[in-house]
Amino acid sequence: MLIIGHREVRDILKGREREIISLVADAYRLHDEGRSALPHSVFLRFPGDDRNRIIGLPAHLGGQEPVSGMKWIASFPGNVAQGKERASASIVLNSMADGTPEAFIEASLVSAKRTAASAAVAAGLLSTEREPSGISLIGLGPINLEVLRFAKAQLPSLLEVTLFDLDTERAHAFGSKVRKIIPGAAVHYAASAGEAVAAHRLVSLATTAGTPHLDLGAAGPGTTVLHVSLRDLTVESILGAQNVVDDADHVCRERTSLHLAEQATGGREFVDATIGGMLRAPDSFRRDPHRVAVFSPFGLGILDLALAQWVKQQAEEFSIGTKVDDFLPLDVVRSAA
């Protein structure tokens, strides 16, 4: 068993945005080709507690280097007020030869970066501006910081950032981080979420909202909304937009905005395309420059596994991580050898 901790994962992933974006795009293509197995995520909730949860994402991704395993990610929003991270995660990778666990990886950064990379892929596909100059970020935690990092890698023209968070101190602290990612960036602070939506034609939502709270009436024609947190937008906003998802069966559940839209209409006709389908056949979807487009990614476990497998390969190549030779029963180790 190879154990790869947070600092080691951080060092492996640092500055590798373009490679991660490519890995995520390839995973989406394989999924669209039917070369994946993706059971529904398991949501572990607690009696009398409607905020905290732990989610299990089992998955298999085929291709030239098949990978199987599971991500186990906890979301405890109250951690933020205590100065701790909202989410914590780990991934186990299993051998495709005999099923034994091969690697245990601290996955908070894997999860954040694969989420941000998927948003960046969508931004590149859906943006109606040839060279977008600005992005609005609503909800200023680690996810939107990574979205900014990956969006800049995908869209180098980004030089202006508008920020909104319910905590103004948090917003200003975030502004200093923006300037490290985009030196010389023009940073603006919006007084409301609606003002942030109106500021640019590219918007990323990464909040901890559990119910819809935002409409897109302020969005200009051609705006692309990266609906990363999935529960921000009203049903009316979803129904009025062009909707792109990673997987309709996965995203239309657990009371996401799209799930509520499905319940309201009795169908999924409002879903216009999948991102994997767009990557495989760009002409299969026509982006209307006069309408808002919303990308709603449920966050597929195949993305975590694709990136975790790459982290494992890098760790093995450069002798990073801790090898535990007696993790498995001795007879299992001998048979595997």
TrEMBL record:
Top-level division of the source organism's lineage: Bacteria
GO biological process: siderophore biosynthetic process
Gene Ontology CC, one term: cytoplasm
Species of provenance: Streptomyces lavendulae subsp. lavendulae
GO terms for MF: oxidoreductase activity, acting on the CH-NH2 group of donors, NAD or NADP as acceptor
A Pfam family assignment: OCD_Mu_crystall
NCBIfam families from the UniProt entry: dehyd_SbnB_fam (TIGR03944)
Coiled coil: none
Protein name: Alanine dehydrogenase
